[in-house]
Amino acid sequence: MVQLEHKSLARGITVMETLARNGACTLAEIYKLTGISKSSIRRLLATLVDRRLVRKSLADGKYRIIITLPVGTGEPVPVEQAYVLDVALPHVTELTKNISWPSDIHLLDGDRMRVLDSTRPLSPFHLYRGVVNRHINIFGSATGMACFAEMDDDALVKIAAHTQPSSRWGLGRFKLDIDGYREHLNLSRERGYGARIPRYIGETVFDDGLAAIALPIFRGNRLFGAISLLWPKAYLSIETFAADYLDNLRETTEAISHDLSKLPP
After folding, report:
1. CA 246, chain centre distance (Å)
2. Residue 46: which H helix or E strand, with range?
3. Which CATH number applies to 79-260?
């Protein structure tokens, strides 16, 4: 029995090392990399997810390690982010079930936004899937706009200056200076939600064809990120979509913020 337990422990460590070394993996990819039987991998992953050492993304079905191991070369999912997902996913899942349009969960991560997860696979509409656990431009995205609307001008100036040299992360990507961006930000504050700026087409090599509106989420007084709603931009204007669904989004973000405030430090 002891030998069996040691064998299971060794396999579990092998799975974690594989995720740490290779980044996010599907069950099939773990099987290919380790040679452990798929039935054993399923049991091991179920235990690791239950013990909060690994998490499975809703958006792409891949497993990601939450802790840092010495062999790690992939980027682990911080524990705090995993807790945020535990809180937010049930709410955005219910939102998608109710209105059909999908949501993305974005974390404010320095001078960028990080995609934590998405309900796009749950939506009956076949939208571009996107990629989770990656950064997107804070200035162009609806979630970034929603976060900036909650910040003071000093924070905007600081982030604009820090990203200015980058053609990908700075305002130059959109042929805007900070005054031009303030015009978009003022409009966002008047509307009461964030929206993509017109030149933003997502982080793909082609236009993803989507529009988005977003509202911020908080943990107590701390601005944590934002939740977006997405739809094909050719289908409805931003104003029409917001008139139909902004209240649903606001109810969801308020519920998430309420639950986040109850998390222990």
Report:
1. 19
2. helix 38-50
3. 3.30.450.40
Least confident stretch, 9-18, 168-177, 221-230: 9-18
Domain ranges of the chain: 2-65, 79-260
Q: Per the structure block, which two tokens stand in for 136?
A: 């997107």
Task: Tell me how far apart the alpha carbons of residues 154 and 144 are, in angstroms, rounded to a whole number.
Answer: 16
Closest by CA to 131, choosing from 114, 109, 108, is 114
pLDDT(41) > 80: yes
Residue given tokens 């982080």 in the structure block: 203
Alpha helices by DSSP H, listed for 100-134, are: none
Amino acid at 128: Y
CA distance 215 to 145: 9
Identical topology for domains 2-65 and 79-260: no
Domain 2-65 class?
Answer: mainly alpha
Closest CA to 115 of 131, 91, 99: 131
Rounded CA gap, 149 and 193, in Å?
A: 8
Q: Write out pLDDT tens, residues 128-149.
A: 766 677 899 999 999 999 999 9
Closest CA to 227 of 262, 198, 256: 256
- The predicted model scores a pTM of 0.76
CA dihedral 18, 21, 23, 26 (to 10 degrees): -20
As given in the structure block, the two tokens for residue 59 are 């958006």
